[in-house]
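Now for today's protein.

===
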Amino acid sequence: MRINNVVGFVKGNTSRGLTFNRKLREDEKKPYSETLNRALDYLGVQNRALIIHGSSFPARLSSGEDQKIGTPYGQEEFLDFIKLHGFNSVQLGPDGKLNRKDTSPYTSSAFAKNPLFIDFTQLKSDEYASILSDDEIDREASDIEIPNENYTYTDFDEANAISNTLLSAAWNNFQNKLNQGDNNAIRLNEEYQRFQQENSYWLNDYAVLDSIAKTYGTDHYPNWSQEDRELLKRVKQGDNNARNRYWQILNEDDNSNIYKFSQFLVGKQAKADSRARNITFIGDLLVGGSSFDELANEDIFLKGYKLGCDNGGPFDSPQTWGMSIVDPNKLFNKDGSLGPSGRYLKAKLEKALSNSSNIRIDHAIGLVNPYLYKEDTVVKAKKRDEHGMEKEYTIREKLHSGHLSELGIDRNHNFEKVLNRIVLPTMREHGIDPHKVVWEDLGWDRTGVFNKVFRDQEHLNGISGLMWVKSYEAPKDNWAYIGCHDNPPVQQMMHDSSVTSNEPWKLDYLAYSMYPAKYQGHEREQFKTRIKSNPREYINAKFADLLRSTKNIQISFMDFFGINKTYNQPGTVGNENWTLRLNPNYKDTYYKSLSHNDAALNMPEIVSMAVNAKVNDDIQYGKASYNKKHEIQPMINELNHWAGVLKEPE
């Protein structure tokens, strides 16, 4: 099938007749990058991560094919591009298989990877026994479109349709080649058999569940029959009828075979990519469990309770995520060893670490001091917003671990032991320093239990959101950002009075941050005038302030590329949530934005502002002599030169 008509693109020809703006020439890239990195080192910014989830990566122009979703694998050209501009790591989202009808990566599977990330063009090679042909891929994947905007969107329905068809073809071709004695297919099958053995602790159960879910068109198991919901449970209880049906699905249903094979393929590509890349990938650990996680490990989850967050919904009401939460009474055995819930958490973390050099812990407070609610207790309430519009929101009975022991839910306060007895030891086993991990500790001050464990006992570093925190108030070992996947881009935040009324957004604060010295009063006043009337200057000031905050920073792909669209609106379910994606022509649109002084980040310009502010600040407070200004000025001049180059027309 042909998904979409070609828009301004012919395979093998990336030109649309546009006049592209100034790009760095090959001979300029090395000195440009060296200057930028030397300046960032002077600022003390050791880790610079671009936040971009796997589905938001661009389609690769070199392939000429679009699978309607991005993939983080095989993106050497993109990674070289962001490295050129000063980034040395990438903050991914969870890479689990998505639930049907739910595109949030934060409700995905803990063990199964997202098969939509498979690069099907690789399956044409000898390494994959040529189990797909050009014709088969051309019939399904659409030609790459290059829109006029600097963004495009993931189409999950089309991506699934393409993936399902190509995986079915690849599986059938694989079987045919094996039957014909194809040597490459035999070698690939040996790998596949090893993969099944190594992942037997979850793979077969999830394959059976996926086959059942496909018949219903949903992973939401309350919509299944009781017989299907309880199949794995009855198998574990020794029910012969259930066992017979389980093995029938596993051995005779092609859906389950294709599911297992898809997990092999995406795992193989992820592993190869992790070995080849020369940039740090930061994975993302899910705090809750998916529907498959719950059905496959039913005995280890709390019955009747779900995980959410006590704020962030409409009118700051609770967010009710519907995620499963492990039973704390099964985390540890009496002898101190890990119980079934503890082994599950450890296995989940190890899976998340398998192809990453670092990890982000999503909603870390949920590991130690979870917000739980009774799933059968629902109260609907209505309230008018500031525009007089009536909105409905949900309140559920909330429980925190400080009270759970009284209710018999966490008799031994085991949630409080998860960090130092499961999570931190597992990180160290994988060579990861927990103090360098991206701990999403937002809301830590709402509960003394989490604060006691996270800060007082373990002395871990969290995240500083510079939406609300001044740069000099952020602990230096924290990770810092202005916006992440849960925030709109700065272009939108700067027009939101609920944001800009906070001190870190005010003109006086930004002017003092950029011109801190007493002798810079005149420059400071001029700067205030400029940023008041010039959105580009205002955005530059915010990101230069970020570079003066901590050793570790993150910048969202929306802000770096100047995309004035929101990736995710927390606490809501919308058609555009999780779909924002880079234009495949991202380089050209990025440089075009810079030359037109649009919102994409001109990194040398921002870094120059931050360096100038730092040296003046150091002189002001006696950390450096005035001669330091003369020592640093050549580097500032170089940065300004490159900032100007990026604004030149082609």
